[in-house]
Design goal:
Order of helices and strands: HEHHHEEEEEHHHH
Shape: globular
Strand content: 15-25%
Strand order of the largest sheet: 2-5-1-6
Number of strands: 6
Largest sheet: 4 strands, mixed
């Protein structure tokens, strides 16, 4: 009787195993699709949260020649020096954008004056933009691809590599002086973002503390 039962089970398995295999495969496929969808949704949520809280600063050089790249940094330094006190007083993203909008023409004139002082006659364009930006690594921090508000300064043809930082929270003024992101600028960013957003932004340096799913998000942002 026992042997007949085992034989029956074996025969059923032989008949039905392909159905079971297909069912398992379909289940795994649906699980992967759901996980990918959830991961994409999570990354979008994190990026939108970060984008809603920061203002970026981009200076685009005329070209990638050594001279044009040096000019780009000179313009950066002049603008940060002239407007650091005004922008450091801002207590929110909204206040920062309002100050930048009011000072936009003046910033353009300041940048133009520095270009001339350096011996060039390139035109300068200054604009406040809200558009898609690619994935960027900012020293040991990561900023995902997505929509951001930014102050953009374009020098000449603006075909050279750009320099960028974060105007709000006020990271530029510290980091430009040292050439890398500092503990002070990290603290400002951490105080502006949610705990979850900051963990993802600093995931490259917090790999042991950050769940693997967050590191997967970073990989998705890079693709």
């Amino acid at each position: 009787m026992k042997q007949d039962w085992k034989q029956t089970i074996l025969e059923l398995w032989k008949k039905e195993k392909w159905y079971w295999c297909i069912a398992v495969a379909i289940g795994v496929a649906f699980s992967l699709i759901f996980a990918a969808h959830w991961t994409k949704g999570y990354s979008d949520m994190i990026q939108k949260g970060i984008g809603a809280k920061v203002v970026r600063f981009h200076v685009l050089a005329n070209s990638d020649t050594e001279e044009d790249q040096a000019l780009k940094l000179a313009v950066r330094d002049r603008v940060l020096q002239e407007y650091s006190q005004l922008l450091m007083a801002c207590e929110s993203k909204e206040e920062t954008l309002a100050v930048l909008e009011n000072a936009q023409q003046e910033i353009c004139e300041t940048a133009e004056a520095e270009v001339i002082a350096q011996g060039y006659d390139y035109p300068v364009r200054v604009s406040l933009v809200r558009e898609e930006f690619p994935f960027k690594k900012y020293d040991d921090l990561i900023f995902p691809a997505g929509v951001y508000d930014a102050l953009r300064i374009e020098i000449g043809a603006a075909e050279g590599q750009n320099w960028w930082c974060v105007l709000y929270p006020q990271m530029c003024f510290v980091d430009a002086a040292w050439g890398y992101s500092t503990e002070e600028s990290h603290a400002r960013l951490q105080n502006t973002l949610t705990e979850e957003e900051f963990l993802v932004v600093s995931a490259l340096e917090q790999e042991e503390l950050t769940p693997k799913v967050k590191l997967k998000i970073v990989e998705l942002w890079q693709e």
